[in-house]
Amino acid sequence: MSKLPSLKNLSYLLALHQHQNFNRAAEASHVSQSTLSSGIQNLEEQLGCQLIERDHKSFLFTSMGEQVVDQARQILTSTEELLNFAQSQGKLMEGPMRLGCIPTIAPFLLGDLSKSLQRQYPKLQLNFREDTTSNLLLHLRNGELDALVLALPIDLQGNLSYVLGRDPFKLVMHKQLASDLSEPVIYNQLPDQSIFLLEREHCLTGHAVAACELADSAKINPFTATSLHSLVQIADARLGATFLPQMAIDRGILNGTDLVALKPSGHQAAREIGLVYRATTSRRQTFRKLAESIAALLPEPTLS
Amino acid sequence: MSKLPSLKNLSYLLALHQHQNFNRAAEASHVSQSTLSSGIQNLEEQLGCQLIERDHKSFLFTSMGEQVVDQARQILTSTEELLNFAQSQGKLMEGPMRLGCIPTIAPFLLGDLSKSLQRQYPKLQLNFREDTTSNLLLHLRNGELDALVLALPIDLQGNLSYVLGRDPFKLVMHKQLASDLSEPVIYNQLPDQSIFLLEREHCLTGHAVAACELADSAKINPFTATSLHSLVQIADARLGATFLPQMAIDRGILNGTDLVALKPSGHQAAREIGLVYRATTSRRQTFRKLAESIAALLPEPTLS
DNA sequence: CCACTTTAATTGGTATTACCGATTATGATA
DNA sequence: TATCATAATCGGTAATACCAATTAAAGTGG
């Protein structure tokens, strides 16, 4: 059995990969350039393979090097988690917690969540980041985030998840347009191109189309909005209807408008909200408690 | 940011946990007892918490210590995998591969699989271990095994899997008992207590009951067998019928008997065979190729 | 064409620490 | 009480991690 590589050298490799420059990587690692340089060479020797190609002035990560970086990132993330876990004495709901959330949930959840967690767990240091599902998953892998609040179903890519609850979709339109409709609304009563949705990168779009059985795309307007608030504007201007999640409506997104929220057809016209975290975590218990806190704030909690 | 624990010290902790004795753990780690002792103390200082309670003669792992051991095992397994991966130059299907398999698959797969892999990938060093699903999953976590061939569905516990294919269940009985039955066999034509199954710890039992919609437990004989070959003996002695997977029949388990295999009722009377591996692995590509090789040997390959 | 800058590798010296063998302290056992 | 087994401690040594300074090579600007 050959000698294990040192975590320090692996972290040097990560820093080099991030900064693509020995000096800056060394600075970021709080060591001298020579230390980092020999650390990398050391690592290459221990692993028995070339990680970077040097061409006398600059360098390039080999394909092998890239793969080692990926694996090393995972190892270091786990180790840092272990350290955090141990240093907080294994106490639940303490220490830093970096939470990612998608834009169609964040504005209607994080305010209340922040308040409720502060009150229940004052030692928990919350940090939020709002981004798309795929970006959040990348940051989760990198160890830059600890857990994500997402709309399911998605490809979990080996992560674990709790299902927190359901968030029903409502069909929202101006009250004058809605006057001669009965619930649940059958879509072919609506004119073509009268339904407005978000841009494609928002998973809400796909989930709404699927959940509300909106296969007939002729009803969908090709113009796409960038936020739920834009959709509200569009609907309030009587340009058409849209789908909004119950969470947003509960938090008053329709206040000051002349819009009404109708029950759409579709057997289960709702999205599921889930909490996603790394399979390698050492804080399962904390995530469980976090899941309970979040579920309590959802329209239809179904923690599992 | 505090200093990361060293992998060496973590491995000392694992050795100590395994041997429950400083001297033996030190010997197994190829260091002196004093080195290991101070290594552990060092680790406790870095982690800022007590890992073992010393009572002047013996010691006991604290709950914290146990949890650190679990996480450390995962970290060290990942690191060893990285080392293997790098040292084999990242080549696919090379180096050691420790494969676990359940007893209701192993005898009917591993022979052919071994031959086929030897021919296709002569540099792959295969090792097999046969055990129950839950034991195999433990060994996978520990890093003692690299991948498992199991019957799905199971709780993956954060591992990843490929579905390799379907393995239909057949209702097997003596040809005289079968003479006045028509396929697919409706179970209430059978006498009570006439169906024999394996012991509870074999997942085949549960899967067969579920897949063949055998909810009516009055038909199931309370005597349980310990192997498929025992079931064949029982059926051949005209004591009753049993369920056997197609794989076993294809490999000739009924040869030399007077048994016939009938199609059971039940919409999808089959089990799925899957390959399970750690989410933290660095050998996904290798497992993919392995999955292809295994799938090719199944009755109904459906790799996904 | 030549200073000047930037880059990564190399060198030599120093401080750290990893490790061992020996010793000690403490229960358990005979 | 003597002996044994165990884990912690101690003192010395070998290994190595690290830095500052230097070198080598390749751009850059005048």
Largest sheet of chain A: 10 strands, mixed
Which pair of protein chains has the largest interface, and what are the residue counts?
A: A-B, 38 and 38 residues
How many helices of chain A? The count is: 11
Helix content of chain A: 40-55%
Give the domain tally of chain A.
3
Keywords (chains A, B): DNA-binding, Transcription, Transcription regulation
Pfam families (chains A, B): HTH_1, LysR_substrate
GO molecular function, one term (chains A, B): DNA-binding transcription factor activity
Family (chains A, B): Belongs to the LysR transcriptional regulatory family.
Explain what the structure shows.
Two copies of one chain form a homodimer. The first copy, chain A, is an alpha/beta fold. Chain A folds into three domains: 7-87, Winged helix-like DNA-binding domain superfamily/Winged helix DNA-binding domain (Arc Repressor Mutant, subunit A, Orthogonal Bundle); 95-165 and 272-301, 3-Layer(aba) Sandwich (D-Maltodextrin-Binding Protein, domain 2); 167-270, D-Maltodextrin-Binding Protein, domain 2. Chain A is 41% helix and 23% strand. The first copy, chain A, has eleven helices and twelve strands. In chain A, the strands form two sheets. In chain A, strands 3, 4, 5, 6, 7, 8, 9, 10, 11 and 12 form a ten-stranded mixed sheet that branches. The mean pLDDT of chain A is 88. Chain B binds a DNA duplex (30 and 30 nucleotides) through helix 3. Chains A, B: InterPro entries: LysR_HTH_N (IPR000847), LysR_subst-bd (IPR005119), WH-like_DNA-bd_sf (IPR036388), WH_DNA-bd_sf (IPR036390). Chains A, B: Keywords: DNA-binding, Transcription, Transcription regulation. Chains A, B: Belongs to the LysR transcriptional regulatory family.
